[in-house]
Batch of 2 targets.
Target 1
Amino acid sequence: MSVENLSMAKALNQGLRQALLADPKVLLMGEDIGPLGGVFRVTEGLHAEFGDNRVLDTPLAESGIVGTAIGLAMRGYRPVCEIQFDGFIFPAFDQITTQLAKLTSRHHGSLTMPVVIRVPYGGHIGAVEHHQESPEAYFAHTPGLRVVSPSNPHDAYWMIQEAIQSNDPVIFFEPKSRYWPKGDVDTSASGFPLHSTRVVRPGTEVTLVGYGPMVSMLLQAAEIAESEGTSVEVIDLRSISPIDYDPIVASVQKTGRLVVAQEAPGFVSVGSEIAATVTERAFYSLEAPVLRVAGFDTPFPPAKLETAYLPDADRILEAVDRAMAY
Amino acid sequence: MSYTAATVQLLDIEGKLVTSDATAEYLPYIEKLSDDQLREFHRQMVVIRRFDIDAANLQRQGQLAMWIPSLGQEAAQVGSGLAARPQDHIFPSYREHVIARIRGVDPMRIIEMLRGLSHGGWDPKEHNNFHLYTLVLGSQTLHAAGYAMGIQLDGATATGNPETDEAVIVYFGDGSSSQGDVNEALVFAASYQAPLVFFLQNNHWAISVPVTRQSRTPLYLRPGGFGIPGIQIDGNDVLASYAVTTANLDRARSGGGPQFIEALTYRMGAHTTSDDPTKYRDNEELDFWTKADAITRYEKFLRSRGAGDDFFAEIEAEAADLTADIRRRTIALGVPEPSQMFEYVYSEPHALMDAQREWLANYEASFEGGEA
Ligand SMILES: Cc1ncc(C[n+]2csc(CCOP(=O)(O)OP(=O)(O)O)c2C)c(N)n1
Ligand SMILES: [Mg+2]
């Protein structure tokens, strides 16, 4: 076993490096990902190691990045695109939703689209407008795209490699607020299926489900709840599309209560989808309605208001209390 | 990249006026200016530079989340900003602090954005038609094209009266020039012959990416393919920026269709305070542009025309006053009420906003009661 203590940024860096080493068709593309190593340093050192033909500092145009990645994929490459910040993916929205997502289907399966789009997302970094958003629902809503988000360095290391191996397009959301905290990464393990939810903390009375940046918040809430006498199970979704429901349904059958949390606005969101599906699949096990904790349905506010906007442990606990009160 | 044979320069690096065939068209715009007007250029450049440097310091001291320096680009901005007539509309990118100030936007509005208190918040109608900053690169070029189309539909341009005929100027960078939106703006502006001046500040970098990655041809030549005339100016020459922008805006307002100016300048500092340029660029380039500095050469020019130490001391004092005042007001800034999030999302009542505003108020009140 080989365990390293790495930040998520470094774990992703190592995962990308493994992918570049493993397959000469893997390419990295994006703004400032070359000598600078990306604004979050996720690609640091990779341009120096692999050169201009594997790590492409692109012109400044997101539609161009994704559109040309599609062409490169047609030619047999496996492009991994970096979008600099969540709020800047939208110039590429057309290429992603009308082209990337549909080309395999339109070719009746004869063409695959092994394109990964890495997107740093989410708040808690005190940044200016368009730099703290959580746009995952738009992509989860689009048939043809796989959407995932790691919550910790170990998962990030493995999930980025699995995403690159996938023959379908994967939108890979990286929680910015989790880039820096370190965690153990077992680089000798054999990984896990990309689309598998994981029970990160066992409990018996309430199930908390989240993904990406929310998982550490859920664990924090679970600990407080435990100290106040409520046993909470925490599940890390890891994959937003498709969703691996079995562990969630099994958990709800045990606890009878489910709270889903996310940074993204709640209206027509991943949380809404999970609430609906769990209600369909585990209705007779539920002791309380499935509750959602989410960002408000407003534009992401100026940074000084982000702590009021984003769900924190208290907001999650408020929902836990409400669920317990039924 | 530095200056080329095509670069229009009215004031050379030594601070001397350039008289040549290439400048003959533009020098009359300068000859018309009074000494006071000429000094105003200097005042604006010096004051904003001091403000800019101090704002970066405020960021380092934890008062701002980030600062976006305009250091080195003062001449391109001051010259073009003062060239716009009162009735003109200005669509900035996010570095044009001095143009905001020229059009009457309190620099505190920009400080507030970068402290994390607002996303803009000034009304262009009350600020001499200076529109909000746009952080999504290039988006504003289409808004400017559309605004200019509206001016034309209203018949508010090309009537033959330059005192009232309206035009629009839009600012964007060398990196942004690659965006689809910018290219679509060129198409729309050309197609409708909208009264719009594209003002590209080529500061040679888009964060860590050099302009050579964006374009194999000098950027002033690109609009030619869209049917829009382009011109390259020395962006560190405030007189060239003023004269060429005035001429271009007047052409646009008198029915000449869209125009395009590429101002060659340099981002002297980091992209923002989050950036470390030593990772990707060398000092040689910086040395060239330090010698080409706008303020140094313009001071020489003004001195040659009789400006004395007391004039420069007066400006220094004004710059010091402004920065002290901004510093004081920045430190005193409070935090907005969370309920503000729900204001202005829609212009009319909206059930979800009402419900969430109420939920948040009750939730906050539950803490005051000592519960939860
Ligand atoms: C659509 C979009 N993509 C990426 C970014 C991130 N970003 C902010 S500034 C910048 C570089 C811009 O370069 P340029 O247009 O030359 O303007 P400058 O910053 O040099 O003034 C980048 C990539 C953004 N703001 N918007
Ligand atoms: Mg630039």
Target 2
Amino acid sequence: MNAQLSPQLQDNLVEIQDLKKWFPVQKSFLDQLLAGRKDFVRAVDGVSFNIRRGEAFGLAGESGSGKTTIGRLAIGLETPTEGKVLFDGIDLGRQNERELRHLRRRMQVIFQDPMASLNPRMTLGDSVVQGLKIHYPEAAEKHRDTLLDIFERVGLSPARYFINKYPHQISGGQRQRVVIARALITRPDLVLADEPIAMADVSVRALLLELMVQLKQEFNLTYLFITHDLATAKYICDRIGILYLGRMAEIGDLKEVYSHPLHPYTQALMAAVPVPDPHKRRTQTMPAGEIPNPINPPSGCRFHPRCPIAQAICSQEEPELRELRPGHQAACHFAEQFL
Amino acid sequence: MNDTTPPLVQIRDLSVTYKTRLGDTSAVDKVSFDIRRGEILGLVGESGCGKSTLGKALLRMIMPPGRISAGQILFNGEDILTFDDKRLRDYRGRQASMIFQDPMTSLNPVQTVEQHLTEAIQVHDAGAESQSMARRIQALIERLGIMQSRLASYPHQLSGGMRQRVMIGLGLVLNAGLIIADEATTSLDVIVEAKLVDQLREIRDVYGVTILAITHNIALVAEMADRVAVMYAGNLVELGEVNRIFDRPLHPYTQGLLASVPTTEINERKELYKMPGEPPNLARPPSGCRFHPRCPVAMPICSRYRPGLNEAAPGHWVHCWLYQDHPEKEEKTLKVAA
Ligand SMILES: Nc1ncnc2c1ncn2[C@@H]1O[C@H](COP(=O)(O)OP(=O)(O)O)[C@@H](O)[C@H]1O
Ligand SMILES: Nc1ncnc2c1ncn2[C@@H]1O[C@H](COP(=O)(O)OP(=O)(O)O)[C@@H](O)[C@H]1O
Ligand code: SF4
Ligand code: SF4
Ligand SMILES: [Mg+2]
Ligand SMILES: [Mg+2]
């Protein structure tokens, strides 16, 4: 069994296999009776990918495409409707509560809004040390040193000064550093970063990006980096997956995908990103319409109602991910023309 | 758009302050610039630098604890700060309109799209007959890419992108000369955002409206603006043609900002510039040039005196001692080529 292998033998820290997450739509009893069926939001609808040990894997796509749900499934905060998640070879779905809790020490999360995720009435030090107290109560005498060390490493120096402050007493950029410190203090293997710097201003964002890259090396981290911003992903991710309506449209090495996008949706997404150069203004027109409702996703290829090159088959057959260039897969019947 | 037509808006030494527990916050500090007729002027800067405050001041929508503490705002040559209530209502109803990041706050939740548009046409043109009304609404929704079936929808039934189109539509019905779009695309996804940008450019081209596009996204300004105004900590620090600002930024803040914008370009090996520090709290702004604590080329004079907004080259304005003389300044003043 996989779980028996030593960590070193696993190339992939996370394996996501045919993952589905359908949320029941909340309806009144009468509405349900009238509809004669139960409706589901197909937030994640058959997604597979691996995250290699030590890499930063990016998950991108527009809002509602299922990024956050996949992230939560990947660290066992959510149970899949179908499919499974292997963490270091261990099937999260086959663990009991206690085993899961033990595994969770190795996974941490950095959320988007640092103000919302820090308790305003707790000192920064108390907030950050919590994870250690919960997961490693036996080593209490070392907690303070570990705490001071992590503050210094995320650039909150002098640590002794910052641990006694409250969230409202520091700047937005510093709060984001506190959230990073809190995630890293238990020395996790996997860090789920869900839009971690989307709220930061440009000048601060560059610093936080650099910090995350540097900490990844220092702590041997593996990142699942979720973002709607393709430009930010470039500075941190090794590989990237592009989601559309709960399905993976394209996946591969980031440089490969960005320089040769093969899926018409990825192409539109890339073209839509505003370029900070007035000499390179976009000329392409954008796809029609907006992302459809995930309760009733379009048949066949989900992108077909908006796709500029759709053919008859596209509304009938769902395209599978196919490797079209080395390390680069796309789910499109007609992607060959872009090779 | 040439220089002989008088500007639509002239802002002169405008200051706006908010009363807070920590004292007065100087959110907009002695700002002067023009908005030209028919241009798209991009107003950029990081959050908290005073962009929204400036936008609201242009409609006299600053609410207590805020107030316009000094300056003038001339619209077609008239100072809007002297308008009485009736004149002000007319100005807001017909001459200038605003699109916010969250259009839900300005749309009526119990009115359909059609009712909104009808009401706006009636405000503008009390005698409009129902036939011409229907035709005008039809033309408008076609232009904006709003489906016929959407006319019966209520605001909460629309996507964010669709709501913003309705807001633009309302501005157009009112025949507003000036549309202020404050982070109008910020909460939208990139594809929807790109379409809205196309739409704004198109209505400018077709109807000749003037647009003040307020955004924290500097790349967006490169996509759509004719001229760019950069704000930092309540000051207007640089103003010029979009190509000049991006090709030859003069202010150290603009330079740093541009160098720290991420791109998707793969062949660009260039690292992002990491600007030290963070924007200041405007209740206690730094002395002299408000950027001096973060400026890599700050000089002794910078913390002592506030620079003016100086035309360093034709049409290119900058608020920085590098390009201005002062008796107490020892460093050489930089000359800027036209
Ligand atoms: N707990 C939930 N209950 C019902 N629907 C949900 C829930 N969480 C997410 N969804 C829906 O699932 C879809 C994907 O959401 P999410 O994973 O948050 O996407 P993203 O992070 O890409 O914006 C959306 O349509 C969202 O409304
Ligand atoms: N209603 C208010 N009360 C007190 N301070 C305010 C208020 N609105 C804005 N400010 C302050 O004014 C400054 C400028 O804010 P704002 O105009 O919203 O900037 P921007 O739109 O560039 O993010 C900030 O320091 C902000 O805290
Ligand atoms: S499968 Fe068809 S509809 Fe889907 S992206 Fe490819 S061409 Fe377009
Ligand atoms: S005035 Fe001085 S501190 Fe301010 S931007 Fe210019 S050089 Fe820097
Ligand atoms: Mg999300
Ligand atoms: Mg604002």
